[in-house]
Amino acid sequence: MTFHGYTADLPSAGVRPEAARARSHLFNDRNVARYRNALSAGAERVAARVLRTERPFSGISPSRLAPEVSGIDLELPLHDPSAALDELDDVYLRDAVYFHHPRYLAHLNCPVVIPALLGEAVLSAVNSSLDTWDQSAGATLIERRLIDWTAGRIGLGPGADGVFTSGGTQSNFQALLLSREEACAAAMARSPLSRHDVLSRLRVLTSEAGHFSVRKSAKLLGLAPDAVISVETDPDRRMRPAALARELERCRREDLPVMAVVATAGTTDFGSIDPLPEIADLCERAGVWLHVDAAYGCGLLVSRTRRDLLDGIERADSVTVDFHKSFFQPVSSSALLVRDAAVLRHATYHADYLNPARMVEQRIPNQVDKSIQTTRRFDALKLWLTLRIMGPDAVGELFDEVVDRAADAWALLAADPRFEVVTRSQLSTVVFRYLPPEGPGRTLADDANLYARDALSASGEAVVAGTKVDGHHYLKFTLLNPETSLDDIAHVLDLIANHAGRYIEDRAPLQTCHRAG
Ligand SMILES: *Cc1c(COP(=O)(O)O)cnc(C)c1O
To answer: Model's pTM, two decimal places?
Structure first.
């Protein structure tokens, strides 16, 4: 045997047995057999579980599952991957929520494509860190190619750049950080105000249906508590350009600098896309930064039939995309794109040990200069292998299919007297509620819908989301699985109607008595 055939079980000369045993777990050339075995055993376990999964969720409650987890003695290792996987089955896999299941209809979690899972396995084994070239080499170049590719799909022009992030929340945060710096500099150049005073006056405009991470970011960025102004939406839950114009004008009159308008291309609840061309016109006229939050709608970038829904996005100053939503990528995979690469300098700090300023002159590509993270996963590899194996059209095909399905689901609900359905989504959500028959039960509609959602989840038969519309409780399907059929949806609607109907039956007579008394 060669030196490299040296097996993990043989202690190296002069190495204490405990040390040799610990070292045998390190991923390296000596331990490839262990690596192969562990990963294939893990994949086998997940595959077996998926083959046996009949429901998206077991319905287990936190109080029943918690003792299983807390009962494990972390001081007492099992030493055996297979025993650890058996245990994992009990504390996690058996009761996990499975997004690949066609009756998982709740949040913006997609089933994932296999090329991306392959990427996930590769990237975590090699473990490149995307902060500097000297920790990543080709990984940095691959991420940059994908940023250029995405910026190209958006149409941001030759000066564009960007960086991968951990998610839409972080992408939105960074976009607002960049816009805050630009707005502060502009306001301080115009007036004698201090930075502190400017910060307290900055405003961000987003629609009522915009994502809550905008408010969270404003707080993190030190803006005033009332810095985020909600712009009115139309009945389709899209920002009203006239309302935006009004707010921009009001801010101008009150001398409140607007640091950004955040338009949403795919609102989380309604899948609505703000009228980007009109919003871009208004931003251009007012000289205001336009950020487009396309965390959800970014899948349209690869659609062969609906790309036009994103028309106007190419005029944004910055764009958020979440590949882990509509590109069928595992968590995490997101990016922030900017029209003008130079604005990323607001995230640049130099550390002697990591990315000294001289490296910029030497043209060494250090992504940390553009990121608010330091150590950072090579999440881009998942998208890379997805594009190299499937291609963008195939991803677009998957997204188009769920958008079509949502339209069919909407029509199904609109024709069903048991339900009331809200605006028709431009993407793949359907917001609706069970509508109790005329009579005293009507007043229980909110509670009945809340109850139906919980009862459904506890049964594990299906998982749906809930949200509030104009103060009332509604249910929501977020369709991201092309395997979800209209039959699945019809079946889930029956289950919801049964749960909600039973809730009303059990309580409506009581209520009638109460009223009569
Ligand atoms: C999901 C979502 C976000 C947040 O993205 P995360 O990846 O969950 O951090 C932001 N904006 C919109 C419109 C979203 O749907």
So the answer is: 0.95
